[in-house]
Design goal:
This protein is mainly α. It has helices spanning 2-23, 35-42, 46-58, 77-96, 104-117, 124-141, 147-153, 156-168, 173-187, 191-202, 204-215; strands at 32-33, 62-65, 69-72. It is built from eleven helices and three strands.
Amino acid sequence: MAQSNGRRTSRRDIYLKLRQMVLTLELAPGAALSENEIAVSLGVSRTPVRESLILLAQEGLVQVFPKIGSFVSRVDPAQVADAQFLREAVELASLEDLPAQLDPAVLAELRDNLERQQHTELGLEEFFALDESFHQGLMRLSGHGNVWTTVAGAKGHLDRARRLGLHENVSPTVFAIQHLEILDAVAAGDIPLARTAMRTHLRAVFNDIERIRAHSPELFATDATTVPVRRNIVIWE
């Protein structure tokens, strides 16, 4: 029985590893996937890799074409918009549910988070993690921090688009400034301003998509039934 649990844990670990590689663009949109190569690189058999790819296909992050192969799904602007709609609805609603007295410990964590966002030597993934923590912290202020897990699980295409946007920007400073504007409005009790700033901040990803699609259309989905071409996909140099 314990051995069976171990196998399930291993499969879960492989799935989470591959999912993270897709979300962080280590496995680029449109890239061909080889079960054999992945299994060798992760030091596992093909079975958990195949099962993980099936799970990722159910999330829309991988496409499997019988007798042709598996590919990382291209970023789907329609799915980005759906995830953005969900995220914006939840985060704006949480701002309306803030208590009169904000938790000083959570506020201090958010201020510390913002200070770390200002560090110029931050890598993309370090900033992305701080960004996620900041937004979850805001929801904790309203008592809805646990909802973030549901939001995070539904925004795979959105997170890839956000990372593409971060790669396009010379510095993430603009996003850190937007975070500061949101938190200052929250701390001052100016919820209308906080909502406006939050909405502007969250919708910036749509401008990123249009800008990136103009020079790298191969990263974005057009027709879900079109079979991808097996070639190397370059996101940035």
